[in-house]
Design goal:
- This protein has 103 residues and is an alpha+beta fold.
- The protein has a single domain, classed as 2,3-Dihydroxybiphenyl 1,2-Dioxygenase, domain 1.
- The chain is built from 2 helices and 5 strands, in the order βαββββα.
- It starts with a strand and ends in a 26-residue tail after the last helix.
- 10% of the residues are buried.
Length: 103
Amino acid sequence: MQLVYVIVFVDDMSAGVSFYRETLKLPLRFSSPQWSEFDTGATMLALHPSSRENPAGTAQLGFRVPDMAACRTQLERAGVRFTQEPTAPIAPEAPQQTETGDI
C-alpha cells in the first residue's frame, strides 16, 4: 500500500498556500483558487476549498494498492470498517506524451 495523495480542505486558499509555502517551506508546484499542490516527493499534498461534506481542517488520503478487493478483504479481517465504497482517483495518472506526440 502506498500513500499517493493528501488533500487538505481549507476555508482560505491564500492563507493555506502561505502556511505550507512560507511556514513549512514546501515548494509550491501549482496554485489556483480551487486547487493548489506542493512538491513533497512521492506523495502529492494538495489544498482544496472546504465544503459542507469536507469541512476546513479535514483531509482526504489516497492510497494505491495492487489489488483493491484483496486489500479490502485483508483490512476488513483486521477490523477496519469501511464507510463508503472505494472511489476512482481524484487525479488519475494520465498517459505521458513524447515529443513526437506518441502516447
